[in-house]
Design goal:
Elements (H helix, E strand, L loop, with lengths): L1 H9 L1 E7 L3 H10 L4 E7 L2 E7 H4 L2 H8 L2 E8 L1 H7 L4 H17 L5 E5 L6 H10 L13 H11 L3 E9 L2 E8 L13 E5 L3 E10 L1 E2 L6 E2 L4 E4 L1 E6 L2 E7 L3 E17 L1 E19 L2 E5 L11 E11 L5 E20 L2 H19 L5 E11 L3 E13 L1 E5 L11 E3 L5 E3 L1
Parallel strand pairs: 5-7
Antiparallel strand pairs: 1-3, 1-4, 2-3, 6-7, 8-12, 8-22, 9-11, 9-15, 10-12, 13-14, 13-23, 15-21, 16-17, 16-19, 18-19, 20-21, 23-24
Length: 418
């Protein structure tokens, strides 16, 4: 983009070279440091681009080689100024426009965040604003390497980040670690308790003292694996020692999901009537051109807002945004579900709740849905039988030092002599 602008300022011509020594003509141009580009071979010669400052030197080369050349077209600011030399105000305006364009290119006008799933965009943008990266920030004042380091240090879930400036666009790319569902730090003493009531189907203990086994019935809140280990001397217990309990525990649980679907519902029927309003956002300020004085006579309408930022190229954004606001009128139409339609919609809602509430690693063994009809609605109750992980870390507040010369029972069926 900037190379194009620079070439336009310098001015250049497209010429056609003909003759029997075109190759020698081009070699002499290179020897005299004449920059030739966009070289294209045609039937009776070649076409190429030459800057204005080098064009006058071609006359000497033409005499030496016997080749002829002629101008095909002219481009650039010098020709534009010459053509409009009598229109002074127009020229001043054009030069001012180019100057402002160059000035605007020194600032950041668009920031995009890519790769974030768990961290909200606003959190990242607010942090970057505190560190000096914001809309309208001077690009030379932005230390991208320092900002990358500070982002990683401030957000624990960010494992990698890259801040790249192209034109007036700043792209913040990052990747995140999957957040740990446990609220207890590793090596912090804790128990594992049950998050649900059910029947244990499988338990694998890595550290800690298991208190349950397969086929045991447990209630919500029961301790499944204790982080409290015994300090033994022979068969005598001398004390306890708290550790970080770690285990995989699955249980068969019963879960109930209930949804209600009214028989009567409303849909939107758009009339085709709409009004459109345009606002200009410039330099982060909103300039309103309200044609309707906010008096929309529609009783029911949707408001649709879209923004289009002006730009000169893929990465060269300008600090001007056209904000389009549409008001679309609709009529609420009352409709009624049949019993079968209500059941189908209820099933859809139940599936959505299952996806939302039940972890993807769980296995659904059985699903039975019961429908209860009333005068105004249908109540659907889905009874699920699920196998899922029910172990939740719970911190232990007290800890004790290990007595010298004692044995520790760690729940892994191993006894270690100190």
């Amino acid at each position: 983009m900037f190379k194009f602008i620079w070439n336009y300022f310098k001015g250049y011509v497209i010429i056609k070279i003909t003759g029997f020594s075109i190759e020698r003509f081009l070699n002499l141009c290179l020897n005299k440091n004449i920059y030739i580009s966009k070289l294209e071979e045609v039937n009776d010669g070649v076409i190429c681009r030459v800057f204005i400052k080098d064009f006058r030197q071609l006359k000497i080369i033409s005499k030496k080689t016997g080749c002829k050349y002629k101008i095909v077209s002219k481009y650039g600011m010098p020709f534009f100024i010459f053509k409009n030399r009598k229109r002074k105000m127009f020229l001043i305006g054009a030069i001012l426009f180019v100057f402002l364009l160059y000035y605007f290119s020194s600032f950041v006008w668009t920031i995009q965040v890519v790769g974030n799933k768990y961290i909200d965009n606003n959190q990242i943008l607010n942090f970057c604003e505190e560190k000096g990266l914001y809309l309208g920030a001077y690009k030379r004042n932005i230390d991208t390497k320092l900002l990358q380091t500070e982002l990683k240090n401030n957000f624990d879930t960010i494992s990698w980040t890259n801040v790249q400036i192209k034109g007036t666009l700043v792209t913040i790319s990052l990747s995140e670690n999957i957040p740990n569902k446990n609220t207890v730090e590793i090596n912090e003493p804790c128990d594992i308790i049950s998050s649900e009531t059910g029947v244990i189907t499988d338990i694998v203990t890595r550290t800690g003292r298991p208190l349950v086994k397969a086929k045991d019935v447990v209630k919500k809140g029961d301790v499944l694996v204790s982080g409290q280990l015994f300090l033994q001397e022979g068969e005598e217990i001398k004390g306890t020692y708290n550790t970080y309990a770690d285990a995989d525990i699955k249980a068969k649980i019963e879960k109930e999901i209930k949804v209600t679907v009214p028989f009567e519902y409303y849909t939107k029927e758009y009339t085709g009537n709409k009004k459109t309003e345009y606002n200009l956002l410039a330099f982060n300020k909103d300039f309103k051109f309200n044609m309707f004085n906010k008096n929309i006579e529609y009783e029911n309408y949707d408001t649709i807002i879209s923004r289009t930022q002006l730009r000169l190229s893929e990465n060269f954004f300008l600090p001007f945004i056209i904000k389009k606001i549409e008001y679309k009128e609709y009529i609420p139409v009352k409709k009624t579900y049949s019993i079968n339609e209500a059941k189908i919609y209820a099933d859809k809602l139940i599936i959505e709740k299952i996806i939302e509430e039940i972890d993807f690693s769980s296995d659904i063994l059985d699903k039975q849905t019961v429908y209860e009809e009333t005068q105004n609605e249908i109540i659907a109750t889905a009874k699920l039988t699920i196998i899922q992980d029910i172990g939740v870390k719970s911190p232990i507040t007290s800890s004790y030092e290990e007595d010298e010369g004692s044995n520790i029972q760690d729940g892994t069926n191993k006894t270690t002599n100190s």
